[in-house]
Amino acid sequence: MARPAHRLTVIALALAASLAAMLPAAPAEAGAHAPRKPASHLVGTWTAASDRLMTAIGGQTVRMIVHTSVGGADLRIRLSNVFGAAPVTFKSVHVGIQAYGAEILTDTNQPVTFGGHKSVTVPRGRAAWSDPLPGKVSGGQNVVVSLYVPANVQGVTGHDRAYATTFLSEPGDYAADETADGFSYTSNQWYFLDRIAVEAAPAVGSVVAFGDSLTDGTGQSNDANRRWTDYLYHRVVRLSAPRRMGVLNAGIAGNRMLYPNVGPSGLHRFYRDALSQPGVRTVVIYEGINDISRGYYTSAKPLIYAYRKMIKLAHARKLRVIGGTLTPFYGFGTWTEEREEIRQQVNRWIRTSRAFDGVADFDKAVRDPEIPEQLAAAYDHGDHLHMSDAGRRQLAYAVDLRQL
User: Are 277 and 178 found together in one domain?
Assistant: First the structure.
C-alpha cells in the first residue's frame, strides 16, 4: 500500500473532488449514444469462507493479517455476523500494512468508517461493507485489520483454520496503535473479517477456489501463504495487467458438498462464498473427497447432482465454472476399494461430461504414475490425503490460465 498522503494534500484532493462534482457534466460528443463504461469496479482481493466458531471475544482488540492478491484502489473490508446469535458492535476499525508480527508499518494504520461513522453495529445474520479507504494497495501485501470489540460476543462468525497468526489484546482498544504493545495472545483463526475488495479496471475480475481442506491449505506452515491458490496467484501476477485477477480462497477444512459437516454444505454456501464475491468471473470447484471418504454413497450420482446444481447456479449468473478432479487418498484411514471406485466415477464424469466450462485435472497432476490410487511421494504431506508444499504448487500449475 502506498504511504498515505500528507493530511493537507488529502484535504485538497477531497475539496477538488467536491468542486468537480458540483460542475455540470461535459456534453456528450455528437453522435455518441452508448453510455460510457465505468472507469473501475469492485473486485475481491481476499476472502475467507465463514462458519460459527465456538469461541468468545469481547472487551479487546483483534489484529488479523491477510495476504492480498490483486492490487487496486479504495480498499474496503467486510465484517460478517452471518452466524451470530446477536448484533455485534465494532467501536474502532483500522487497516494498515504489516511490519513484523503484530507491528504495523509507521503511518500506514488508518481508521475505517462505515457510512461515515467510526463504529458499526452488524445485525445477526448480516454483514457490513466499510467505506472506501483512499489510496492504493498492491497485490501480494500483508494487510493488517484491527477491530475493537467492546462487548462480549459468544459464537463468533469467522474462519477456523486460517494458517495465519491472529493477535488478541488484553482488555482495551489498541486498534489505532501501530506497535505490538498490548497484544498478549495469539490464535490461528480469523474473526468477523470475511472479505477485502479494491477498485480495479473493468477488465480485471476474480477467480474463486471453492473447496475443502485441500483448498483451505491443510499441510502448510503458519503464515507461509502456500495454499494452492497462493501459488496460482504467483502465476496470475506475471500476466499482463489487463489479464490479472483476484484469487479468492473459499475453502473450509472438513467441508462436504451434500452434508453440513464442518460449515454449511457446499451446496448451501455456494452462493454466499462463491457466486456473490465482488468481480467474480470464474469458480473452480474442487470438492467432494470428504463426501466420498466419510460418506456412505454407493455411486457417484449424488455428487454429480451437486456439481450440476452448482454449475446451473453459476451459469445463471453468467460465470464460468472449472471442475477440479478429485485427488488420490489411498493410504488414508477411510480409503476403501468401493470409495476409490466412486472417486474414479466422479473424475471420469468431470473429464468427459462437458458439463463444466473447463477441467483442472488435479488428480493427474499429483498422482503416482505407477500407483494412480495414491499421491506421488513428493506431493504427499504424510497422511496420504493432504498435499506437501510441492503438491499444492503442482495443483496451481494444473490450472489452465486461459480458462479463467
Answer: no
